[in-house]
Amino acid sequence: MACPELDLSLVVPVFDEEENLPMLHREIQQHIGGLGLSWEVVYVDDRSRDRSFEVLLGLRAADPHVRIVRFRRNFGQTPAMAAGFEHSRGRVVVTLDADLQNDPADIPRLVARLADGFDIVVGWRKRRQDGLWLRKVPSRIANRLIARITGAFVHDTGCTLKAFRRELIENLPIYAEQHRFLPVLALASGARIAELPVNHRPRIHGVSKYGIGRAARVALDLLTMKMLSSFSRSPLTYFALLASPFVLLPVLYLIVGAWGFGGVDFSSNWGQAALLTFILVSMAGVYFLMLGLLAELVVKVSGRPFDPLVHRGNP
Amino acid sequence: MIQSELEVPAHPPVSKSCDVTLVVPITSSKAEFEQVVAAFCRELERLGRSWECILVFDGIKGEAFERGVALQVASNGRIGTIALHRPFGESVCLSSAFENSRGELILTLPQYVQIDPHELSKLFEALDNGADMAATRRDPRVDSRLNQAQSAMFNWVVRIVTGANFRDLNSTTRLMRREVLEQLTIYGSMYRYLPATAYRQGFRVDEVPVRHLAEWGGTSVFGPGAYLRRALDVVGLMFLSRFTHKPLRFFGALGGAAIFFGALLIAWQLGMWTLDDGSYGLFVRPSFLFGVLLVVLGSQTIGFGLVGEIIIYTQARNLREYRIEKVYE
Questions:
Q1: What is the chain B residue with the closest CA to A58?
Q2: pLDDT, mean of residues B31-40
Q3: Which of A68, A284, A302 minimises the CB distance to B314?
């Protein structure tokens, strides 16, 4: 990663946004240009199928602040962000969508909030301009669940408009489709999170690239996030928790059997079959513990991949 | 090495690059590599490309290796040989040859003349048109119907699994740019699936139809072992090409389905048991036990997925998920 040379980098993943880009860049120039900071915009072209790339080249020819990272093929939004982070040079990095739903006018406020001593400032689309049932309700449920399960109280994890301190980014693993879990992982590494209501505008051009039907995936992601945010240094504990019902059930059976119904009875069909069932169940518990040990091994072998954040006063 | 009468430096200019490096993995002592080298090098000369050739003997010793060394001596070092001490497979052959190669392009060839050397120009054409790799499709094929049917079925399955549209992965004549091999990790049975893997990594891979000359070894029904190995390859390929960065999606889907059906069975049996007058032998029936088994199995599968997620999380820095074509500063 290049050493930070600039005050501010904007990272904008672009996928099929040819109509929106000129207007977006005008707004960025208007709101960032007057701040008196050194800045750049890193547009990451996720191999758009329309003319977005040509539009970007045009912007770059007209404005030296523009840098373009072009992918070999379409890889998705989170990889685009990761690539943008990797090639950005700012001490502060702000991510935003290219679809104009985020308002560049909010960026100065986010950056100012970051300077108050936070590591990550998350945008909160308080008045969201999307369909209620298809977008808002599922998102609200997902955010509640994330907050409840992981303990990261963020109203709106799905909002792309976020500001990061560079040290934080270098400490975060950004992969798969988990950009919405960045605050969760950030919190786990000891970051100070702030939330700021931001403007959200309806879509003018282009179509939304999200769809509904991701409930199962979010559920699985939650399972992962719980593990990574709370137990990434001692996965055995997590696996022991997962194993507990499988261990407790047979133990309960033995206790109840021994004291409640005159001893565990092998003579009847019932007793034999019940025993078989519980042996099966307790096996799952044992296997979970073994998997937990395996996970410990993995963590140990990897050394200390992501250090907890240390604060050295304001820059 | 004989030094020429010109003002020769102390060391021969080893680092001088050439256009094409031919790589021929040799896995059988009956390999007809002399014909391959002769035919393809003549064609490269005709096309005006400078070349070098590396013969990799995959644990092949004795007479075949002697022939290779003879060829090396006769070529005055233009043909090199690498001997692996025991068979490691074509993937290792390719990567060890690649480490020693100097060509800007790499051309892999089978150990006998499988396709018409005159078709080489088509491969170069594909690369000139912007492709990163040119794979070949033998068309029309001259081998037996049975071979063709087996091959068609295999390619169809791989196509479905990887989403990469290739019709002849068994044809290993391939021309590629250096950077393709620099960015791919080649191991195991990857040699065969190289075009599909390169495609998944974002390289442009064109499949070029070429004239099929002969098949080696005649018709054969693959043994059950070969089928099993291919099937395992395909499972591994599917997992790695789609779920490398989110293993829990894969294990979670499997485990979730098992838990769901297990829970259904248990609920059904428990329902019957409570509705009945007490004589319903719950544990006597296999359905209940089978349901419990499914739940146990499903939760274990999810556990494996979680271990996978930990591996990916801790290694995330080493695994780059994207390939950048260019950064425009």
A1: B328
A2: 90
A3: A302
Report whether A288 contacts B303 (CB < 8 A): yes
Nearest CA in chain A to B306: A224
Distances (CA, A) of B275 to A70, A273, A305, B271: 64, 20, 55, 6
Instruction: Give the integer Cα–Cα distance in Å for A107 and A93.
Output: 10
Which of B281, B322, B329 is facing A82, going by the closest CB pair? Answer: B322
Contacts B316 to A, Cβ<8 Å: 173-175, 305
**pLDDT, greater one: A169 or A57:** A57
Q: Which DSSP string corresponds to A190-213?
A: T--EEEEEE-B----SS-----S-
Q: Is the peptide bond before B209 cis (omega within 30 degrees of 0)?
A: no
What is the phi-psi region of residue B35: left when phi exceeds 0, alpha when psi lies from -120 to 50, beta otherwise? Answer: alpha
**Do B186 and B106 form a contact (C-beta atoms < 8 A)?**
no
**Closest of B85, B55, B316 to residue A82, by C-alpha:** B316
How many Å apart are CA B160 and CA B152, to the nearest integer?
12
Question: Which residues in chain B are closer than 8 Å to A72, comparing Cβ atoms?
Answer: 201-203, 322-325
Which residue type does B177 have?
Answer: R
Q: DSSP per residue over B69-127, as a string?
A: HHHHHHTTTSEEEEEESS---HHHHHHHHHHT--EEEEEE--SS--B-GGGHHHHHHHH
Q: Which letter does DSSP use for residue A305 in this model?
A: -
Task: Please report the sign of the dihedral spanned by the C-alpha atoms of residue A29, residue A35, residue A40, residue A42.
Answer: negative
What residues does A138 pair with on adjacent strands?
Answer: none
Which DSSP helix (H) or strand (E) runs through A123?
strand A120-125
Report how many Cβ contacts below 8 Å link chain A to chain B. 149
CA B56 to CA B91: how far, in whole Å? 11
- Mutation target for B interface from A41, A189, A277: give the one with most B CBs within 10 A: A277
pLDDT classification of B162: cutoffs 50, 70, 90: confident
Instruction: Give the 3-state secondary structure of residue A48.
Output: coil
- Interchain pair A288, B303: CB under 8 A: yes
Burial class of residue B133 (count of CB atoms within 10 Å of its CB; 0-12, 13-18, 19+): buried
CB A162 within 8 A of CB A120: yes
- Which residues are CB-contacts of B10 (< 8 A; sequence separation ≥ 6)? none
Answer for the pair B268, B288: CB distance below 8 angstroms, yes or no: no
Closest CB to B314 among A272, A294, A299: A299
Q: Which residue of chain B has the CA closest to A298?
A: B311
CB contact under 8 A, B300 and A246: no
Res A149: pLDDT: 78
Q: Which pLDDT score is estimated for A312?
A: 55
d(CA B253, CA B255): 6
Q: How confident is the model at residue B15 (pLDDT cuts 50, 70, 90)?
A: low
CB contact under 8 A, B306 and A175: no
